[in-house]
């Protein structure tokens, strides 16, 4: 069975992000922001995935279920690929800078400042920057200082008045100040300077006691191991255990050293020696600037043509016809598409539940939340209004652990009944259950979605929420909450696909149904829209199905270990990836066509961890109108010829051929909903 290594496939996904930075269809400032996304993605990749491979190498583990190759070989391939992508990144960056200049926008350094600009920069430095700087002199320091993960450092070398060599480290405070300072406009031209260069412009002021005039300064950064060290026996004292593990993360071993390629070799070797890094590590030369993740917040200083046109979220016409969302859902299933439609409906639902005299209980699963979460405010309001509020919060949501620890305390202090996950399992499902009394007695409505209850990501992630009052669904959602509290109990689900016990077997059975359909009717169909497709057993099953004549369509945003050209598939698998303005995040599984089709919305990717080590939920879509809407959505994705790329074994990321009218699914689906 042919497969593609998951790590290399992920790097291929990030190459598609880089393609977006190269794509002139995108407004120029947005191209710059895609460079920021690329950089941020790569940092996270090193902090998590490279960290894992490095551990496997140290343990001399030759194979792994998700790596399927020698870890050492994979690490070498990663290094080669990253270096290649970095060179391409630098080329794209220079091209964008040049084109910004054609629009009268110039990024200048400290040597290009005129007299007026220098005065402006110096004043900003003295007021805003200088109070945040902590220069560290290295020459007589007995122990090399600890360097924070993913922070830019300015390494400064100079001769003092006694002709003695001095070295200093200065942390760039971009966590407290914008990385970019917009300078006063002159003659219709706009100027931007990096925070790095504001500091460079003032090195003489910083080190004036040394009476030096010539400074050699270069930026570097390191990326550390961010994997948490948690064992499976985490029932007792988990809260404190996680806090200790987070502290350990901050001190994880360095995995990558990225530096200005113009840094003198003796300076490079000095730093590597001090940090105990070798050429076996990922030592990557780059350009003058690093931490391009800051480019995600690149300032918009030009006209509106340089950024995406504003597309305000649309109202849901059915919900707008009701004063009560609960009443509306009680009558008919509702489907919401973000960011095309307004996420505020979820906030409004929780606010309504908080004050409704008929609502008795609210249950929610939480994985990630916005910094100023309206969801939390609504839940606290519900407690104050006497509702029984149960919140399941996942403390191990990667890179949101600290935030979730704080939210856990906030909710507990407010009187919410808190469930801190489930031992040995991550809870990744996106559930709300609201129980209320009506004339008919006790009733419930449920939310099952593909995305987090996060107001921020709801504007940039393409996700789906299903709201339903169907008893067969709401009763099983209630069972999921019971399962979370007591996962050792046997719980039967007839409608929902629930990991870790039932999803894998049900998915395999659904694939088998399509194989049987080929044998009985001559046709079978499977569509999988997912962020990742990695699980070996499911990949093999898709190969078998395709070999039997089942037509398989795959829309995979990120990692795809399946090889569409696999001989046993007999040409019956087509796989594409769509990358555009919004991050494709919805998971949709379709088995069969027309009246026989079965459609599921899920929080789970087709990865081993999602199927076997997480609590995930997929919900069947029973409403015929919603099924048709989802099919219209999927058909736009399958016919996209502007932002869709083909998956293949060589990971060429070739765009789908465009021989006619442009179909750009994200743009066209917004228009579809607007006109519906």
Give a structural overview.
The protein is of the alpha/beta class and 676 residues long. It has three domains: 6-306, 2-Layer Sandwich (polyphosphate kinase like), CATH 3.30.1840; 317-485, Endonuclease Chain A (Endonuclease, Chain A, 2-Layer Sandwich), CATH 3.30.870; 497-675, Endonuclease Chain A (Endonuclease, Chain A, 2-Layer Sandwich), CATH 3.30.870. Helices cover 38% and strands 21% of the residues. The chain has 19 helices and 27 strands. Strands 10, 11, 12, 13, 15, 16, 17 and 22 form an eight-stranded mixed beta sheet that branches. An eight-stranded mixed beta sheet has the order 18-26-24-23-19-20-21-27, sandwiched between helices. A six-stranded mixed beta sheet has the order 2-4-3-7-8-9, with helices on both faces. Helix 15 (503-521) runs parallel beside helix 16 (536-547). It is globular and about 90 Å long. Residues 62-67 and 228-239 have low confidence and may be disordered.
Short descriptors:
eight-stranded mixed sheet, globular, single chain, Endonuclease, Chain A, 676 residues, polyphosphate kinase like, alpha/beta, 27 strands
* Helix/strand/pairing category: alpha/beta
User: How much is the average pLDDT?
Assistant: 90
Number of helices: 19
Shape, per Cα inertia axes: globular
Low-confidence stretches: 62-67, 228-239
Q: State the distance separating the first and last CA atoms.
A: 44 Å
Q: Say what the CATH topology of the largest domain is.
A: polyphosphate kinase like
Supply the CATH class of the largest domain.
Alpha Beta
Tell me the radius of gyration. Answer: 27 Å
Number of strands: 27
Give the total of domains: 3
Portion of residues in helices? 25-40%
